[in-house]
Write a structure and sequence with these properties.
Order of helices and strands: HEEHHHEEEHHEHEEHEEHEE
Number of domains: 3
Largest sheet: 5 strands, antiparallel
Strand order of the largest sheet: 2-1-5-4-3
Bound molecules: adenosine-5'-triphosphate, magnesium ion
Shape: elongated
Length: 363
Amino acid sequence: MYEQYKTAVESSNIVSRTDINGIITFVNDEFCRISGYRREALIGRDHNIVRHPDVPDETFARLWSTILAKRTYRSTVKNLAKDGSTFYVNTTITPILNAAGAIDEFIAIRYDVTKEMELQFQLQEKQEMLLWQSRFASLGHMIANIAHQWRQPLTELNLLIYTLKNAALDHQTDAVISLHRDAKTVIQSMSQTIDDFQHFFRPGKEREPFFPAVSVDNALALLQQILRKEHIHLTQQNDRDVQVLGIQNELTQVLVNLLQNAKDALISRPDDDREIRITLWQEKDAALLCVEDNAGGIPSEIRAEIFAPYFTTKHASQGTGLGLFMSRLIVEKSLQGTLQYTSAPRGARFVITLPTLKETTHP
Ligand SMILES: Nc1ncnc2c1ncn2[C@@H]1O[C@H](COP(=O)(O)OP(=O)(O)OP(=O)(O)O)[C@@H](O)[C@H]1O
Ligand SMILES: [Mg+2]
């Protein structure tokens, strides 16, 4: 019975046994095959012969403290084969106790997960690439926005300088001084625009408590000029006390994406009937942040696809189709929330749900 059991385990797994010091006393054929060593080269050697240099000492310290405490250790381990190649094994190491309750030896049973791990790495790489691409895409949008934001003050500056020149030629000292002051104010506000955008693009901050209402403020500060130019009427009703955990700028980025989309959709509407409504409130332990427009919504045929990478109905020069994909990724992975589309009475409604720091005390 025991022999049958042993054969079954050994024929389907990678098996090794070591003594209490980690010296190999037994390996099965599978172990030899995957590690590339002959059996004679393994028996009597320290098990760390297959240790991969990438695996930190702490991992081994944890392994040893677990099994020496007579507990089972389970982990996915990166190993090094004889030919220098890497393999990944899902490992279970069990201490075998003798009648006196002392550790006799350790049995390690593993199965090969190299393919699965490689697939996972590929996916991670792809996702990172998408992230970069979308950062670049939003950078493109942002540059367009700065251009918009600057056009008006530039015109204003032009006029101020012209007037200033005339005042100077006329020797109107007071006017020159006042025009100079006005010009400086315009320049300051242009420089503020740059600061706002720079702040927005500063990457890699720590997660910390923040107010989503401030993300809304920041997103609107970045887009105000363009919304005004397109005659988009904005209403908002935000609970400014709601607090969540994460990175403020990332929520700002999501909101910028949603607002840009609403703006793009609204351009086809008559310019006296373009509305965006933002609402932020708390329900129990969830913050709900809602961006709604009256541009007609998303046709049911494409609704299932809008969150897919590269899906766009816009001209190539206008949309990469990464906005909603990225937004959902940020909300789910970084803010531990959800981003959903629902149709509103007159257009699209996107709802961001985030876990809040504390439950509401008032109903
Ligand atoms: N508020 C909205 N109203 C109508 N359609 C929308 C709205 N938001 C998104 N969509 C549709 O969903 C598609 C995908 O949006 P997404 O933000 O992912 O990409 P994009 O806006 O086309 O390009 P990008 O955001 O990369 O510039 C859009 O092309 C559009 O067809
Ligand atoms: Mg978009």
